[in-house]
Write a structure and sequence with these properties.
With 138 residues, this protein is mainly α. It contains 7 helices and no strands.
């Protein structure tokens, strides 16, 4: 999704997480000119909320063991980005936005790389986006 000012180098995702995909579809359907596609926004909203709710359910050890550390980090990165999109588009209309942002902060704390490198800067920019979501929350 191009145009995210806090992520200038990460503009394409070849395999987005369900949450990021649902958030992007929701955002694009909100202002779509074609009524048939705009009508899908309520369905995308439900899917987006369900994807966020899955982040608060702990994974089983066997499920977590199948994914590499870099995949876990990339998935968390995309999920936080999806939460940012959800938070910014649902400001003052979803009572659970504060909970979503809390989940985003938890993912940042759990998944941000510990060593300083290029990825650390991307996480810092993502954290800034999460803060912007918090500022728009009532």
């Amino acid at each position: 999704m191009p145009g995210l000012h806090f992520l200038p180098t990460k503009q394409t995702f070849s395999a987005p997480t369900p949450l990021l995909l649902a958030s992007m579809l929701y955002v694009s359907s909100l202002r779509h000119a074609e009524p048939r596609l705009a009508d899908l926004s309520s369905d995308y909203f439900k899917i987006m909320c369900e994807a966020i709710s899955h982040l608060s359910i702990p994974q089983l050890e066997s499920e977590a063991a199948e994914v590499s550390d870099s995949d876990v980090e990339e998935n968390a990165f995309q999920d936080v980005l999806g939460i940012i999109l959800a938070g910014l588009t649902c400001e003052a209309s979803a009572k659970t936005t504060g909970i979503w942002i809390s989940i985003g902060y938890r993912l940042v704390l759990e998944s941000c790389p510990r060593e300083l490198d290029v990825r650390s800067r991307e996480w810092q920019m993502l954290f800034s986006g999460l803060q912007a979501s918090l500022l728009s929350w009532p």
